[in-house]
């Protein structure tokens, strides 16, 4: 009789290629870290590598076609164009992590912008208008989440109904403003909101702000890892932590240097747009919320296996409702940024197209449509890809039709590459 080896101990390959184990936590040195990362790439766990490589290839292509693509003026313009796509992508990530979707987020953002611009036109303070808009969009998100979670309805159907209803509400609100919304357009009458996309810091302030942000991010990374080491918990090697901090500083220096280039023709125009700071602030807050709170752990648990999460005592109703609330709140922030970018809001806003771009950004960045996998940084990476495509094709003089088709091809390619690489070798 032959014996069968039933040893449950996992092999080294099984440990280092498991999606549940982090290379940073398994490695004891930089060399081990690199070996584990390479082994995971070969096994299909490539992480954000495909989208980063794809972004580099797209940038090289557009620069070869038009030498102005990597100019300081165009790069800053690109960041401004991508801001609202990135934040709306962040909004979608809250629900995508649950395996849901919010097709109404684009019109939620537009309706929030109408409320804010209406109040500004009536003479209300800018902060009151912003708070009212964010409260309204968060409340609508909560309503959608409650209906979906309480009645067990598909989010696709509920939010599609929401998209249709809000598109009608947008028309109603703008028409109800009377003389404020002449011609179906409400113009932005506030310097503070307008400066989100049109204003910028001084060059000196840009350097100070970016270096302070890099220093704070570095301290958070180092302190968090050091605290784990002191407590005897698994933590990445010190060399990996220092490498991450160096990368953060390098990125901050590059952004500040590009933003401080004079991109004006008739006047001097230097400094980083305020919109970039808004995006970085939202990214920081939501990254901490998902990565370092119980709420974030519950979202990943529900997205991974909703029934197991329910049996573990997690309230699916509460977490789903809160996730849709945060989606609506972030959509409201997007509406303010979008109104600042356009200088107005009108009945011609294509909320459906905006939300599809946002979903595309999240998925291209690496967030799963089936829940349980993704992070806020995905919206930044994917949003930059979408923004680069639109910006590059505009420089080449191609039509909006070409922009949409190329974005669709990149989205499809990202999903295919993600499926192939994560399937791994047969």
UniProtKB/TrEMBL annotation:
It is found in: Cell membrane. Signal peptide: none annotated. One of its GO terms (cellular component) is plasma membrane. The chain crosses the membrane at residues 47-64, 76-97, 104-121, 127-149, 204-223, 235-259, 271-290, 321-343, 355-372, 379-398, 404-421. Keywords: Cell inner membrane, Cell membrane, Membrane, Sugar transport, Transmembrane, Transmembrane helix, Transport. InterPro entries: ABC_transp_permease. Its main location: membrane. CDD domains: TM_PBP1_transp_AraH_like. GO terms for molecular function: transmembrane transporter activity. The keyword Lipoprotein does not apply. Pfam families: BPD_transp_2 (PF02653). It is a multi-pass membrane protein. Part of the binding-protein-dependent transport system for D-xylose. Probably responsible for the translocation of the substrate across the membrane. PANTHER family: ABC TRANSPORTER PERMEASE PROTEIN YPHD-RELATED-RELATED, XYLOSE TRANSPORT SYSTEM PERMEASE PROTEIN XYLH. This is Xylose transport system permease protein XylH. The lineage of its organism: Bacteria, Bacillati, Actinomycetota, Actinomycetes, Streptosporangiales.
């Amino acid at each position: 009789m032959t014996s069968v080896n039933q040893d449950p101990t996992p092999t080294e390959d099984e440990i280092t290629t498991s999606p549940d184990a982090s290379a940073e936590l398994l490695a004891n040195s930089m060399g081990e870290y690199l070996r584990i990362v390479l082994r995971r790439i070969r096994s299909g766990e490539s992480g954000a590598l495909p989208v980063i490589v794809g972004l580099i290839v797209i940038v090289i292509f557009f620069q070869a076609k038009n030498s102005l693509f990597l100019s300081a003026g165009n790069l800053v313009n690109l960041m401004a164009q991508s801001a609202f796509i990135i934040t709306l992508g962040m909004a979608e990530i809250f629900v995508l992590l649950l395996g849901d979707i919010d097709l109404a987020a684009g019109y939620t953002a537009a309706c929030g912008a109408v409320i804010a611009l209406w109040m500004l036109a009536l003479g209300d303070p800018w902060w009151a208008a912003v708070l009212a808009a964010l409260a309204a969009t968060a409340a609508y998100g909560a309503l959608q989440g409650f209906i979906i979670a309480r009645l067990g309805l598909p989010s696709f159907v509920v939010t599609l109904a929401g998209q249709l209803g809000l598109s009608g509400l947008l028309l109603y609100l703008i028409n109800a403003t009377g003389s404020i919304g002449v011609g179906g357009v409400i113009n932005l009458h506030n310097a503070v909101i307008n400066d989100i996309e049109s204003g910028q810091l001084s060059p000196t302030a840009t350097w100070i702000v970016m270096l302070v942000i890099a220093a704070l991010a570095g301290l958070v990374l180092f302190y968090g890892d050091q605290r784990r080491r002191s407590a005897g918990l698994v933590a990445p090697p010190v060399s990996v932590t220092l490498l991450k901090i160096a990368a953060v500083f390098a990125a901050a220096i590059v952004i500040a240097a590009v933003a401080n280039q004079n991109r004006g023709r008739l006047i001097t125009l230097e400094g980083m747009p305020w919109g970039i700071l808004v995006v970085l602030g939202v990214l920081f807050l939501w990254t901490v919320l998902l990565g370092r709170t119980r709420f974030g752990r519950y979202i990943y648990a529900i997205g991974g296996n909703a029934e197991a999460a329910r049996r573990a005592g997690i309230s699916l109703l509460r977490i789903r409702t809160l996730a849709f609330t945060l989606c609506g709140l972030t959509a409201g922030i997007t509406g303010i940024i979008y109104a600042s970018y356009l200088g107005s809001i009108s009945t011609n806003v294509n909320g459906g197209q905006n939300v599809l771009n946002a979903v595309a950004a999240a998925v291209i960045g690496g967030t799963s449509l089936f829940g349980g996998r993704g992070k806020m940084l995905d919206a930044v990476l994917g949003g930059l890809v979408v923004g680069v495509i639109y910006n590059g094709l505009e420089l080449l003089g191609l039509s909006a039709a070409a922009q949409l088709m190329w974005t669709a091809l990149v989205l499809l390619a990202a999903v295919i590459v993600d499926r192939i690489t994560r399937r791994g070798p047969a």
